[in-house]
Design goal:
Elements (H helix, E strand, L loop, with lengths): L7 H8 L5 E6 L5 E5 L4 E2 L6 E5 L5 H8 L2 E7 L4 E13 L3 H7 L15 E14 L2 H18 L10 H7 L5 E7 L5 E5 L4 E2 L4 E5 L10 E7 L5 E10 L3 E11 L11
Antiparallel strand pairs: 1-2, 1-5, 3-4, 4-7, 5-6, 6-7, 8-9, 8-12, 10-11, 11-14, 12-13, 13-14
């Protein structure tokens, strides 16, 4: 039986037009990148195949042209989720996938333009699934907040703009963390407790799986107002927490989609 058909809840989530979905990619040098990619949709004519629209994507496109390995995170509004390993297949400039993306509710009435092309993805495995309770979200957020208070004044990275810090300080938002695993594939996992511990650091209550100490990581936030930012930096693993020392900050949407802001 195809991988996706073994996970009916996953298929339903992937078909959701507004289900939060994130794509983790890597550069040729192994630097992770993770962005919201809500347009990811299961292909109905091919097993274990997904397609998405290339709309306002920058680094993701560059990375996929360099290295086909991907990680995908799907997380529903009721905090059920799946972690996928996949390979990018190809870009298609015309055809049914392009037409379906351009006619979707997400893009039909956008203020910019249609997609440049459609990307095809082959799912290799479901690496894990999870359910997070609202109580766990609140508990981990408060524990990370206390850890952030103790972490203030420690080694600081690149200062995040105030608007970015304010968004990451929210408890009600989808936050994810990505890194490149030992097999060379990027992985993306939920990190809902991730929050500022000063201008140049973020702290999260430790989850599983988690990056290794010293790993290059990318973090992303997607709010219910469709605001998104990406942070890149180094990960320091503690006993119960992890700290991201910020090196770069990127906007995730207009007016500077994918542009560096710090």
């Amino acid at each position: 039986m195809p991988i996706l058909e073994k996970n009916p809840g996953l298929l339903e989530a992937l078909r959701g037009a507004m289900t939060p979905k994130f794509a983790a990619t890597r550069s040729a040098e192994g630097t992770p990148n993770v962005v919201p990619l809500v347009s990811i949709t299961p292909a109905e004519d091919q097993p274990d195949t997904l397609y998405f629209g290339n709309f306002l994507l920058r680094k993701t496109v560059t990375n996929l042209d360099q290295d086909k390995r991907m990680g995908i995170l799907v997380i529903t509004p009721d905090l059920k989720g799946w972690i996928l390993k996949a390979d990018f297949v190809e870009w298609q400039a015309t055809g049914p996938y392009v037409d379906l993306q351009n006619s979707s509710a997400l893009l039909r009435y956008n203020a910019y333009t249609g997609i440049r092309n459609a990307g095809l993805i082959r799912v290799l495995s479901v690496e894990g699934s999870f359910t997070i309770s609202k109580l766990q979200v609140a508990r981990d957020y408060l524990l990370a907040r206390m850890a952030a208070l103790f972490a203030r004044g420690s080694a600081a990275g690149t200062a995040m703009p105030l608007a970015v810090r304010r968004e990451f300080a929210r408890m009600v938002a989808v936050k994810v963390l990505a890194w490149v695993g030992v097999d060379g594939y990027p992985a993306a996992v939920p990190a809902l407790s991730l929050q500022p511990a000063g201008p140049g650091t973020l702290v999260a209550w430790k989850g599983s799986p988690a990056p290794a100490d010293g790993a290059s990581v990318a973090g992303n936030i997607l709010t219910f107002a469709a605001v998104s930012y990406q942070i890149k930096g180094k990960w320091s693993a503690g006993k119960n927490t992890g700290t991201l020392t910020v090196q770069e900050v990127y906007a995730g949407g207009p007016p500077l989609p994918g542009g560096r802001v710090a």
